[in-house]
Amino acid sequence: MKCPACGNAVRKKRYRDLIIDECESCKGLWFDERELGEFLQQYVEEHPDAASAPVGNGARRRDSSAAALQCPSCCVDMRVTNYAYDSNVFVDRCAQCGGVWTDRRGVRQLAAYVRGNPKMDKLGAALAQDIQKRQNLQDLVDGIQVLTASPGLWTLMPRIIVPIGDDLGRQTIPFVTLGLILANTLTFLFTTREPEAFMAFSTEYGFIPARFLQGEAIYTVLSCMFLHIGLFHLLGNALFLWIFGDNIEDEFGHGSFLGFYIFCGLMACGAHLALYPHSTRPLVGASGAIAGTMGAYLVLHPGAYIRTFIINTVVPIPALVYLVVWIGMQFLFATVNYSAGVTGGVGYAAHAGGFVAGLG
């Protein structure tokens, strides 16, 4: 890893019970996501004089025309952001991985802000309880991740949970559903032609709650619905949209269905924003909007049957059973992730938000 400020080597360094990255030359510090807050709590305990450090005009508050520093982990441009809404201490933050870069002067100013701010003191007092709470649930999260990462399980999953169709006919050609699938496919082919290209697109057009709350990139509540991180992500969404979307388009009409689809996608972003307002990870994918069509399907066609692979047999499962179990799993995983402080990975909260919007 190279220092984003001077380009020299960055080395691992132990600070109490944390491992942080320090530049050997300029002594700048790199913190992975969540590390900075824990580091500052420990730093103010060891440096009671930190409260005397002048706060304001913090580290790395550069002229707007200056070149952005590159994230040493993701190699994308970082943004100069205020550490907190009223801190006036600026750091370089990566929107892709959530990491933060600052220098020694910035650390002292941040410590002064944390130590002198009553709200931050209250957060600091609750930090230990929060860490313990997350640790208690981490075993469950790790178990789920290990289970779903198993090659053997992934071999069986398409034969267990993936629907292949329903028993409902349609009266019209689902032009909007087909158009959305085509738009998602073309966007995927364009944005994933190179790994670096997708990273840039996801950072620019993915929905990032922390950036949205600053009044920036409002358009991402719409653009994020057309980005997908991989082929299976795209194919899975296309399959679910085709199975559930065509019948809802039949019921609503083409124009109304498109408006409904976008509305559910916006509500999905809203649910993600409500749970993770400070997240700097991009939310991408059409899943939230598609979950809305599934919610509407549950209301309009609870008695339909969803043809589903189970082991080596196709079994018709009542839509009421299939969709209630599906949304129950989304709420379960969203709760586990939120309680454990997990902000990345699958957007279960967005799925739940879109589904609930579709019920209305």
How would you summarize the topology of this molecule?
Layout: E1 10-15, E2 18-23, E3 29-31, H1 35-46, E4 79-82, E5 90-93, E6 100-102, H2 104-116, H3 118-148, H4 151-156, E7 163-166, H5 175-191, H6 195-205, H7 209-213, H8 220-223, H9 231-252, H10 254-275, H11 287-300, E8 305-310, E9 313-318, H12 319-339, H13 348-359
Antiparallel strand pairs: 1-2, 2-3, 3-6, 4-5, 5-6, 7-8, 8-9
Helix pairs in contact: 1-2, 2-3, 5-9, 9-10, 9-11, 10-11, 10-13, 11-12, 11-13, 12-13
Describe the protein's architecture and organization:
The protein has 360 residues and is α+β, with helices and mostly antiparallel strands. The chain has helices at 35-46, 104-116, 118-148, 151-156, 175-191, 195-205, 209-213, 220-223, 231-252, 254-275, 287-300, 319-339, 348-359; strands spanning 10-15, 18-23, 29-31, 79-82, 90-93, 100-102, 163-166, 305-310, 313-318. A six-stranded antiparallel β-sheet has the order 1-2-3-6-5-4. A hairpin with a 7-residue loop joins strand 4 and strand 5. The protein is elongated. Residues 53-64, 120-128 and 143-160 have low confidence and may be disordered.
